[in-house]
Design goal:
The complex is a heterodimer of chains A (549) and B (305).
Chain A lengths: L1 H21 L36 E8 L13 H10 L1 E8 L1 H14 L6 E3 L6 H5 L7 H7 L1 H9 L1 H7 L9 E4 L1 H6 L2 E6 H6 L8 H13 L11 E3 L4 H7 L14 E3 L5 E3 L4 H15 L12 H9 L3 E7 H13 L7 E3 L12 E2 L4 E7 L6 H13 L1 H9 L6 E4 L2 E4 L1 H4 L7 H8 L17 H9 L1 H11 L2 E2 L9 H27 L6 H10 L2 H19 L1
Parallel strand pairs in A: 1-2, 1-3, 6-9, 11-15
Antiparallel strand pairs in A: 3-12, 4-12, 5-9, 5-10, 7-8, 13-14
Helix pairs in contact in A: 6-7, 6-15, 12-21, 15-16, 21-23
Chain B lengths: L1 H33 L17 H4 L6 H8 L3 H19 L1 H11 L4 H12 L6 H12 L5 H8 L11 H29 L3 H9 L4 H26 L6 H7 L5 H4 L2 H11 L3 H29 L6
Helix pairs in contact in B: 3-15, 4-9, 5-9, 6-9, 7-12, 9-11, 11-15, 14-15
The chains are: A alpha/beta (549), B mainly alpha (305).
Chain lengths: 549, 305
């Protein structure tokens, strides 16, 4: 009889392990999950401090973060960029890394045990508030003032970013990677199969009706030419959030702002509750009924998506501009002649100006833990890699002579990076050296911290043209200051049920398994405490606005 | 007293080797199952890592109340129970049936082949099984829908329709586990005294009568014990598979306590809340186990204790 007991346990252990591998599928590149925004920026263009020396090789810092996204080269294997930085700073780094897909889960448990924490920690949660309240992250503001001249100057140049990183109690507990520069050159947008468009002699759609007509034509006129109506006109990658991109035509900020946006009077609204959102959902439902949306959109799965892609079944999806190149490569590798993917202008409506929300401007949170023996060295090290000219160049460009050259005082990527002999795309090529890192770094809009996006565009005229195609439509996502400890606790309590309710119902509305009843939808959300969430978002929004003045 | 101590000592001296053998499992249970139980406290605390479980402030029944007041409370209970109940209902009889049928086979080579083939799926990782299900049931190009298409049936979006979830979950569970679970019954059948069969044959019993009057009664204690154990696990569905197969479109039938704990307790790092729900879950499991055991002890001879 003993046997019965033993098996389930071993089985569960095995399951737990396999689950750990696939359970959380973090995105390879930046996931569009940040909902912060950027205001006006100015930078005097001063160069950063260049003398990087912090210690004489007798200081070791442990850095806890996810491992290199280019998985064949672990940070622990002594990558060139980090060897150079070690020489420059005199600080040895003990990489406490976990593969990216498992990082958050693993580190959350370690944080909960509060033992053997690394000196510098990539916060495994959405924001640093809870960790700071629990005493795991220490305040950085005094350390920055005393020991981090580059970060100080960066904050002076970009006060709105500083304010986004400042907790309501006035302290800075963590610094964040900045993506505002990349957001301009690598926007997140709707992506369309231009080859299909051309094959059917169609124009780039702008209004919702035009999109509908294009999707219908994709479905009915066999643009992939295989004689079967197997085309999937629109295959969303983030389910109803992707459908939310069409909300641009109705003035809805559903993607990076998740529906929380202020109206003209500056009052925060939850836009999913508006009549316009109902309109959007009805439109989506119509599309779904006509077979124009991928029937598997609710259970998105990267492999299936790629498989459809490589068989030329998909007409439109969403993604970063850089993804268009990956899509084309994927199709070319599968024998599809001259694949051609374009990002489109945002859907236009009568009620509002069309727009795409920008990614970021912040991404991830990095702080110093209370178990750090030498916080001074830690902040100096962060100052060097995060905001100094030399350090940030290592992050953005890698190794001089290999991945970049200096041309007229400006770094330019080499052929090795942009047309890598091993067939790596440029991000992977940089990551194989240790650049494009998983520690905080900056791609800003001005000054030396903005060199990378420009250098990429210089090498990719086709991407540049596409970026310019939508540049005038880019607007910041709703800027929210960090929540207070109490607000944070209420948000976690309320938002889990709200998100479950929202995802479930929107998907069911679109698929038609539930009749679209917006009155009930609204009253249910009210019952789940949406008003309190909106009030908290309002407070966060107001705090940010005040800090700017 | 002294005499008793002397007796104990002499018994220890006599049986020391047996005690030694028993020691590792006892230590295992103490170290890994009893000592960690103090962690249950976390469900009643506002857990703060720096202060540890014991140092964190008390929260009372706050997290239990939060769970009981959640609009999803009843749905989670219903989904968890139904998923288990269906698994038990359809899944429990299958290995018994299979073991009995297998034991009636004459050709040993055929018997071994069938048995081996039947428990192979058990060794496939749940992640792979989930991947297979996703691929086979795809409404775009899945095998099952292509077969249905040949019969003129429009594609069914199996994984996006709440009504299909339990069927898919339970049937794939049976496919994966019936062979493996039948092993214990096959062993029990092999343990039945062959004289009984010979005697029955002398009395002119036919095959069906032998199954009914010898095989089934012979393995009845095994069946009852396994049933009690299964009932004690009613509230703990293998949540990994649910997690891999569900999506917002099927939450209605697929969202169970385990997945809810995963989303809130693990993903949101609300460890106290997660622990509270799990504790509640286990209390129900123990209650069910006690009821099943009690009922069995009263109605038949067999029980766990």
């Amino acid at each position: 009889m003993k046997r019965i007991w033993k098996m389930p346990k071993m089985f569960i252990l095995m399951l737990a392990l396999t689950l750990a591998v696939i359970g959380c599928s973090a995105n390879e590149t930046e996931s569009p999950n940040s909902n912060q925004a950027e205001g006006n920026t100015q930078n005097d263009g001063n160069s950063g401090e260049t003398s990087g020396s912090i210690a004489n090789g007798d200081v070791t810092l442990s850095v806890g973060t996810n491992d290199n996204y280019y998985t064949p080269k672990s940070l622990t294997s002594g990558l060139p960029v980090w060897q150079e930085i070690e020489k420059k700073t005199g600080v040895k780094i003990d990489w406490d890394v976990v593969p990216a897909s498992q990082y958050a889960q693993t580190m959350k448990v370690r944080v909960a045990a509060a033992q053997d924490l690394p000196d510098i920690l990539n916060a495994p949660e959405g924001d640093p508030i809870k960790l700071a309240d629990q005493g795991i992250l220490i305040p950085l503001d005094e350390l920055i003032e005393a020991h981090a001249p580059n970060i100080t100057r960066f904050f002076e140049d970009y006060p709105e970013l500083k304010s986004l990183m400042t907790a309501p109690d006035g302290h800075i507990y963590a610094i964040s990677s900045v993506t505002s520069g990349a957001a301009k050159t690598d926007p997140y947008a709707l992506i369309l199969n231009r080859r299909w468009l051309d094959a059917l002699g169609l124009e780039e759609p702008t209004t919702l009706d035009e999109w509908h007509r294009v999707f219908k034509a994709f479905k009915e006129q066999d643009p992939n030419g295989n004689g079967q109506a197997d085309e999937i006109p629109f295959s969303p990658r983030y389910a109803t959030r992707d459908l939310g991109l069409f909300g641009s035509a109705l003035g809805l900020h559903m993607f990076y702002s998740s529906g929380y946006a202020p109206n003209a009077q500056g009052e925060m609204e939850f836009q999913w509750m508006k009549d316009e959102a109902k309109e959007l959902i009805e439109w989506s439902h119509q599309l779904y009924e006509e077979g124009l949306i991928d029937p598997e959109f609710a259970s998105f799965n990267e492999e299936q998506f790629n498989s459809k892609f490589s068989r030329d079944m998909i007409g439109a999806t969403s993604g970063f501009l850089a993804n268009t190149a990956n899509f084309a490569t994927l199709q070319a590798d599968n024998g599809i002649a001259s694949p051609d993917w374009m990002i489109t202008v945002p859907p236009t409506g009568e009620a509002s100006e069309p727009f795409y929300e920008e990614y970021g401007p912040l991404s991830g949170w990095f702080g110093i833990t209370s178990s750090a023996d030498n916080p001074e060295a830690a902040i100096k090290w962060l100052d060097y890699v995060y905001a100094s000219e030399e350090g940030s160049r290592y992050m953005a460009f890698g190794i001089e002579g290999q991945s970049y050259e200096m041309v007229d005082g400006k770094p330019q990527f080499t052929e090795w990076t942009m047309n890598n002999p091993d067939g790596l795309d440029f991000t992977a090529a940089l990551r194989s050296l240790g650049a494009f890192p998983t520690v905080p770094w900056i791609r800003a809009t001005e000054g030396y911290l903005s060199d990378q996006p420009a250098a990429i565009m210089a090498y990719k005229p086709d991407l540049k043209a596409q970026a310019e195609h939508v540049e005038s439509y880019l607007i910041p996502a709703t800027p929210l200051g960090l929540p207070s400890v109490e607000e944070n606790e209420r948000l976690t309590t309320l938002q889990t049920d709200i998100n479950t309710y929202l995802q479930e119902n929107l998907v069911q509305f679109v698929m038609g398994s539930k009749p679209i009843d917006w009155d009930k939808f609204r009253s249910d959300l009210n019952g789940l405490g949406i008003e309190e969430v909106v009030a908290i978002k309002q407070a966060q929004y107001d705090r940010f606005q005040e800090a700017l003045q | 007293m002294i005499r008793q101590a002397a007796i104990v000592l002499s018994r220890v001296r006599r049986d020391w080797i047996l005690l030694l053998i028993a020691l590792p499992p006892i230590l295992y249970y103490v170290i890994f199952h009893y000592i960690p139980m103090y962690g249950i406290l976390i469900a009643f605390k506002d857990f703060r890592p720096i202060e540890g479980i014991l140092g964190s402030p008390w929260a009372g029944f706050k997290y239990f109340e939060q769970f009981f007041n959640s609009i999803y409370f009843w749905r989670l209970i219903r989904n968890t129970l139904l998923l288990s109940l269906y698994s038990l209902l359809w899944g429990f009889s299958m290995p018994i049936l299979f073991a009995v049928l297998l034991s009636e086979l004459r050709n040993p080579w055929f018997k071994k082949t069938v048995q081996t083939a039947s428990y192979l799926p058990h060794f496939i990782s749940i992640a792979v099984v989930a991947g297979m299900i996703v691929t086979f049931t795809s409404p775009v190009d899945g095998l099952i829908n292509q077969l249905l298409g040949l019969l003129g049936i429009a594609p069914i979006n199996f994984l996006a329709e709440a009504g299909w979830f339990r069927t898919i979950f339970v049937s794939s569970n049976i496919w994966q586990s019936f062979g493996w679970e039948s092993i214990i019954y096959i062993a029990a059948i092999a343990g039945i005294n062959p004289h009984l069969y010979e005697a029955a044959e002398m009395d002119g019993a036919r095959r069906w009568q032998k199954i009914r009057h010898i095989t089934l009664p012979g393995i009845a204690p095994t069946i009852v014990i396994l049933l009690i154990l299964n009932i004690g696990n009613l509230m703990s569905v293998g949540f990994e598979k649910v997690l891999l197969l569900y999506n917002p479109a099927t939450y209605e039938t697929a969202d169970i306590i385990g997945t809810f704990v995963y989303r809130r307790g693990i993903q949101n790092a609300e460890f106290s809340y997660g622990a509270a729900i799990s504790l509640f879950n286990n209390v129900i499991n123990i209650a069910l186990l006690l009821i099943a055991n009690y009922t069995s002890r009263k109605t038949s001879e067999t029980s766990l204790w």
